[in-house]
Amino acid sequence: MTGASNRYPTRDLQARDAAHHIHPFTDTGALNREGPRIITSADGAWLTDSDGKRYLDGMAGLWCCQVGHGRQEIADAVHRQMCELEYYNTFFKTSHPPAVALAEKLAELTPPQFNRVFFTSSGSEANDTVFRMVRAYWDKMGQPEKKTIIGRWNGYHGSTLAGTSLGGMKGMHEQGDLPVPGVHHIAQPYWFGEGGDMSEEEFGLWAARELERAIDEIGEDKVAAFIAEPIQGAGGVIIPPQSYWPEVSRICKERGILLVVDEVICGFGRLGTWFGSDYYGLEPDLMPIAKGLSSGYLPIGGVMVSDRVASVFIDQAGDFHHGFTYSGHPACCAAALANLEIMQREKLVERVADDIGPYLQAKWTGLADHPLVGEARMVGLVGALELVPAKGDRSRAFEPAGDVGTLCRDLSFDNGLVMRAVRDSMIISPPLVLTHEEADLLVERTAKTLDDTYAVLKRDGRL
Ligand code: PMP
């Protein structure tokens, strides 16, 4: 028994959790029978649980902890801000220094068309803001019939009504009779799973042109915007073929619809550029952000608003009837500013592009040699492994989908590595401060986890 386990008695915490806590995206009955693991502390790329076991945090929390855990500097900045002005709102002709400083910093870091931000507390709220802002924009432009927003199947934009609706997760839509009216979904650029006989490039063009077909079907005068993640995260780290984004960009420009690029995961260095839009050369009109903005130290998100959109709101009189109690929360802004200061000082984005990114990618893609792995892919520091029953045959998947991924995820935890399973893809998105030794360990533990998974499947006659 360690000191930590005495301070945090695992069974007792699990029982109290089961009695009173409903977890996100969880089968509560099943979890209550098993009991959650209790994470009690974290440092750098490492987590410690209530039994003293250490895990390499291959997911940077929930894709968010860019600068690693346990940065005293961020805690100190928040403490100072809390002592000076713990909270005030930004409604009613009011602002405060941390909101001003963060807005200015974001204008500096984001692509040149962005000079303004609308603050929220999360990525979901950012996408709710997008939903209302897009429609308000077209109203102000005198084209109120331009209402439909096009998203993609298996895209993820959050869990609120608008976020769930814009996203294309069918399981989420089924709960709560969503999407709301005025949202249309098109195919995702998921070549490995859905590319059939097409080459990657052909499939990328086909998937992009689904947007054009949808615009023709709905009517250009009725379509307001297209929303997408540069690389789909929660959908399974789906890296689009190279042909995809240039074609989507062309279509959005030619057809006069707004392009909304959801940077909640890809933003803040994940791809080795400040934003996914920089990586793919995109020119979005709106850009939801969250997660890496504060490395998750405190909840904060926002929507970057391009001059094209902002000018319409600024030039025309009248309120935008939208906002949150915590829009621009001073302590959250202070956390974000301290986080961005670390990212710039330690050149973490450059590090992902030139150093730890290529280092981990080389080792990660080597896992494609494993008999369970159909594809190993990674950009920057976000990657996936496709687990398959028949290597070399993309048409065959495990049935029922998700069981093998869950098995592999649980074995990964046993091996001291946090990986996430999306269906039967294994996902990693580690902190940007990952060291070379930690990258070696991450790949070693992944390889062992694949071997363990393979052994269980063989034993059970599933391979
Ligand atoms: N957009 C994307 C691309 C996301 O990945 C997420 C969260 N994983 C969200 C939006 C929602 O963010 P939040 O959970 O902060 O509401």
TrEMBL record:
Keywords: Aminotransferase, Pyridoxal phosphate, Transferase
Gene Ontology molecular-function annotations: pyridoxal phosphate binding; transaminase activity
Needed cofactors: pyridoxal 5'-phosphate
Pfam families: Aminotran_3
A single Gene Ontology CC term: cytosol
Database matches in NCBIfam families: PRK07480.1
Similarity comment text for this entry: Belongs to the class-III pyridoxal-phosphate-dependent aminotransferase family.
Name of the protein in its database record: Aspartate aminotransferase family protein
